[in-house]
Design goal:
Helices cover 0% and strands 22% of the residues. The chain is mostly beta strands. It is elongated.
Length: 64
């Protein structure tokens, strides 16, 4: 859980690291909207930065 204006860091569990596709989901408490990253492919050691704004139409996804 991440509060408004904060940053959260999460590690993908080892048993999910071999998955071909990954999807991030943000489900704001008290909001009828759910935001999805879409299917992404991430390799071991890579980092994902997903920025979600209050306006659901404004978000960015960076993988490196």
């Amino acid at each position: 859980m991440v509060t408004t204006g904060a940053t959260g860091h999460f590690r993908i569990p080892r048993h999910h690291r071999d998955a071909q596709d990954l999807e991030l989901i943000a489900d704001p408490i008290g909001s009828p909207y759910v935001m999805r990253s879409g299917l992404i492919q991430v390799g071991a050691g890579q980092t994902i930065r997903w920025t979600v704004h209050q306006n659901a139409a404004v978000r960015s996804l960076i993988i490196w």
